[in-house]
Amino acid sequence: MKVKVIPVLEDNYMYLVIEEHTREAVAVDVAVPKRARPLPGALCTRAWRPNTGSHLDHLHLPNSHPFQLLEIVGREGVSLTTVLTTHHHWDHARGNTELARLLPGLVVLGADERICALTRRLVHGEELRFGAIHVRCLLTPGHTSGHMSYFLWEDECLDPPAVFSGDALSVAGCGSRLETTAQQMYHSLVETLGTLPPETKVFCGHEHTLGNLEFAQKVEPCNNHVKAKLSWAKGLGSSPQTGELSQAAWSCQTRL
């Protein structure tokens, strides 16, 4: 399983998940189907490959050249068949309609009928299959009532599993509770996401790492864990030419 991390808008991430044997691809949270913002230093996308030493494949273009999701699909030589949408908000789903127009037959999946261009509504616990990649759909209400996270693993593979958590969970934080009760949100974070295997890699929907940790430090100024994590995040941000700060949103192991 190969994951392309694509920064878009101000601080969003969308993802392209590739089954490397069948060359089938699944997109997660298509905010924009064509234009994506380049990272500082011309780093536009990165691929997560857990069985390599660096976990990263770098792909560079000048900052003035916006990446296109479909260009990445073509460059990778894959067939994009499905979109997994975590929730209906425009910055996670607005690109579905145009992408479906450009790719007739594209399947758009999610748990909320408000999702743009939805072709089928998913339910909690449902499992999907893309070649050797398994997807377990985890309903995680809190940010929205129909928020779905996606837990992925691959057959006979030593790579750790991954969860695409949208706005349910980010590094050192979570999305605002907008539509559900605090009890429901607690269940999503602690009982649903918090019981995933501890080695699970978290691919979240936004780059809010520094803001979350700075807030946490104000709330608990004597918390040494927060201090260490904030120092780590600031250290990544000290070399913007590498685009490493956004690595905090997906390459670290997030523990609840």
UniProtKB/TrEMBL annotation:
The entry's keywords: Hydrolase, Metal-binding, Zinc
Domain of life assignment: Eukaryota
InterPro entries listed in its UniProt record: Clx_II_MBL (IPR035680), Metallo-B-lactamas (IPR001279), RibonucZ/Hydroxyglut_hydro (IPR036866)
CDD domains: hydroxyacylglutathione_hydrolase_MBL-fold (cd07723)
This protein's record includes keyword Cytoplasm: no
One Pfam family named in its UniProt record: Lactamase_B
Boundaries of every Metallo-beta-lactamase domain copy: 11-206
Known cofactor(s): Zn(2+)
GO MF annotations, alphabetized: hydroxyacylglutathione hydrolase activity; metal ion binding
PANTHER family: BETA LACTAMASE DOMAIN, HYDROXYACYLGLUTATHIONE HYDROLASE-LIKE PROTEIN
Similarity-based family: Belongs to the metallo-beta-lactamase superfamily. Glyoxalase II family.
Annotated protein name in UniProt: Hydroxyacylglutathione hydrolase like
Organism expressing this protein natively: Phocoena sinus (Vaquita)
